[in-house]
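Readers outside the structure-tokenisation community will struggle with the description of the input data as it stands. Showing the layout once, in full, would remove most of the difficulty. For illustration, here is how one protein appears when written out as sequence plus structure tokens:
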Amino acid sequence: MKNRNKYPQVSYRRTVIQPAECMKGVDDNSVDVVVSTFLHCSCDDSAAVSREVKRVLKPGGKYLFLDHTGFPEGDIGLHIQRFFNPLWSLIFDGCYLDRNPSRIIKEAGFSDVQFEKHISRSFWMYLLRHMVMGIATK
């Protein structure tokens, strides 16, 4: 909030704390931008989150997202992720290694979805090496 005066064109109205799958405290078509980081991997219903984000965004509104994603279909890494999913989810509060947020966001019916995939080369990041960041426009 200390930088508020630097950006007078940006207004902050309130904070809403609710599950992303059901943002009933947020009106339809009322938000300019939604930002999420590592949400789709750990929410209960990624498709419901995408639909809710689309619902609350104003026409032309932007959804900025960053998440890790599963290995491509057929890759041995995806089988390894699925093997570790039960334990990983238990340890890391419901996080799943093999979700595909870019596909799920596309299926929500945004007018445009653009994303970039990044792959970490670090051995220690093997299970989380596939990342996606993007912008979906309502």
